Amino acid sequence: MNYRVCFVCTGNICRSPMAEAVFRARVAEAGLAALVEVDSAGTGDWHVGEGADPRTVSVLEENGYSVEHTARMFERSWFSRLDLVIALDAGHLRALRRLAPTDEDAQKIRLLRAYAPAADGDLDVPDPYYGGRDGFEECLRMVEEASVGLLAAVRADMEGRVA
């Protein structure tokens, strides 16, 4: 059975699709693409059906990532099929915890930057939507940094299941 990770931000057009693309690349580089499923969603429905923000796409492509994305809204029923639900900021974390049908489901929710050693207590990935390109570049840097630790955690969790 595959290990399933879903990244969640507000509208699913900036931060979460960026995290999805970066983490999918890390999973593939690690030779785990056949074992780990990666996707993303938003806490709201504002952008459902739309593609990723063009600035997200541009920054990802310029840094060697591919992105094929259609925004969607996270649904409570998904908890039962997911292993990890990764929130991009504390607001998403709270929204997801309110949605979690059980305590076990709530335990699946984590903040992405909790996996970044240099996060220094500030675990939010700031929303770049209302700013300039530099915000998207900073978002990518934060996502890349946290993806290393997240991949290690997913590997450990997968190994723990096999044992």
Describe this structure in words.
The protein is of the alpha/beta class. It is 42% helix and 13% strand. It is built from five helices and four strands. Strand 1, helix 1 and strand 2 (36-42) form a beta-alpha-beta unit. The chain is globular, with a radius of gyration of 15 Å.
Based on CA atoms alone, the radius of gyration comes out at 15 Å
Task: State the separation between the terminal residues, measured CA to CA.
Answer: 14 Å
Question: What is the topology, as strand order, of the major beta sheet?
Answer: 2-1-3-4
Total DSSP helices:
5
Query: Order of helices and strands, N to C?
Result: EHEHEHHEH
Sum up the overall morphology in one term.
Answer: globular
Give the beta-strand count. Answer: 4
Strand-residue proportion: 5-15%
Structural class: alpha/beta
Helix content: 40-55%
Mean pLDDT: 96
Biggest sheet features:
4 strands, parallel
Low-confidence stretches: none
SSE diagram, text form:
Elements: E1 3-9, H1 15-29, E2 36-42, H2 54-62, E3 84-87, H3 90-99, H4 103-106, E4 109-111, H5 133-162
Helix pairs in contact: 1-5, 2-5
